[in-house]
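S1.2 Input.
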Amino acid sequence: MRATIAIDDKLFEEAKKLSPAKTKKEIINLSLKEFVRHKRQEHLAKLYGSGLVDLTVEEVEEFRRDEE
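S1.3 Output.
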């Protein structure tokens, strides 16, 4: 998908310094991937102890493989 967006220059430069990514596209894609991973973790943390999540170790490992 192509899009024209305004990005905070200081925030982008910080991400560029902290990231192993070499291109703008890589930095943005990595940022989106990390955002999604973080939100999934938050969601699972909220479900922890609620009885709604009953995962085996194998299922957790499968989720981890999907994130790679």
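S1.4 Remarks. The mean pLDDT is 85.
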